Amino acid sequence: MKKFGVLGFPLKHSLSPLMHTAALQELRIEAVYDKYEIAAKDLNCFMKRVKTGEFAGLSVTVPYKEEVLPYCDELSEQAEAIGAVNTLYVKEGKVIGENTDWYGFIEALKEVEPDLNGLKFLILGAGGVARACVYALNKEGIVPVVYNRTKEKAIELSNKFNCIVVESLKDKFDVIVNCTSVGLHAEDPLLVSEDIIKAAKIVYDLVYLETPLVREARACGVKIVDSKRMLLLQGVKQFELFTGENPNFEVMWESIKN
Ligand code: ATR
Question: What pTM was estimated for this model as a whole?
Answer without folding.
Answer: 0.96
